[in-house]
Every structure is written in C-alpha cells, then in structure tokens.
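Dear support,

I submitted the protein below through the web form. The confirmation email said the job was done, but the results page showed an empty box. After a refresh the structure appeared. I'm attaching both so you can tell me whether what I see now is the final result or a partial one.
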Amino acid sequence: INDKKVDLSVLISKLDEITINFVFNAETKGSETILNGENVEQIIRGFEVSDNVSIVAQIQQVREKLISLQQEIGKQGNVVMDGRDIGTKVFPEAKLKLFVTAGAVIRAQRRCDELNRKGEKVTFEQVLDNLTLRDEHDTKRKINPLIQADDAILIDNSNLSIEKQNALIDNLITNILSK
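What the results page shows now:
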C-alpha cells in the first residue's frame, strides 16, 4: 500500500503464498497470529494496519482467500473468531453468533487507550476518524459488507465492563451451546 493505493496485481500474485496460523502464548494467555512463519500479532493490531485495512478488505480476491483460510481454521473446531463478516460469510451455520458493538466514541476511546498503552502515539481524533471511515467503508462495500447476521445476538457493550461482557457471553455459551 502506497498513499492508500494498492498494487492489485502484486497483491493478487502473492495470495497463494499466504499461510496464517495461531499459536497460544502461555505468558500472555492469548492467541498470536503467525503469518508465513512470522509473529505479526503486534503489527496487525497497530494503527497503520487499522488505517489501511478497509482498502484491502474491499478486494474480492482478498476476501475469498481470507474466508478460505478462516474456514480451514474453523474445521479444527472449538474456535472463536471475530471479524466483520464471520457470522454472515465465513461461518453462516455457526451455532452461536454474536454481534458485539458499542458507540463510536466509546470504541474510539477504547482503541486509543489500547494503542497508547502499546506505545503508539495517536490522538483520540485520529482514532475516531479512522474508526468512522472504516465503519463507513465496511458497511457500504459490495463484497461481504459489515452487517449483523439475522440469527446473531446483539450485544451493545457501551456500558459494560469487560468482566460483565464476558460473563454475559459465558452465559450465552452455556445456555445455547449446551442444547
């Protein structure tokens, strides 16, 4: 990506070379993303990626490749995935689909705080502008737009602590998946 423009032919030619795996990190007690053998967890969570992801996400060949990779990972079972088209395109038959959201200002503040904790110097206004633009691009794109699946449970966590949100989700998992 250069000046918000993608060299489409180069990108498409590299898609078949992409492998994505996830490795559990016992120290952080979280999953880390491995792209072609390299841990990219920190990179993909940075502002530079957030600032460019909607551009790449609109490319049909990229969407197709990612859906294929995600579905392969899902075949392993017991997978929790988040993304803007997981419940509608990647796993439309999932037993439990959650559409988790919050108000734009709250989401932007949370993201700004997260980036600043990681040492990235961004302003709230930068993050809010990025988030608003990304939401607009993702909801209006022709290929797999961001929409709530008809059978997804809406969770607005604007006024929930992470602990309360997790308790709510744990309860849903217990009640829905135990049936």
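Response: this is the final, complete result; the empty box was a page-load delay. The chain has a mean pLDDT of 91.
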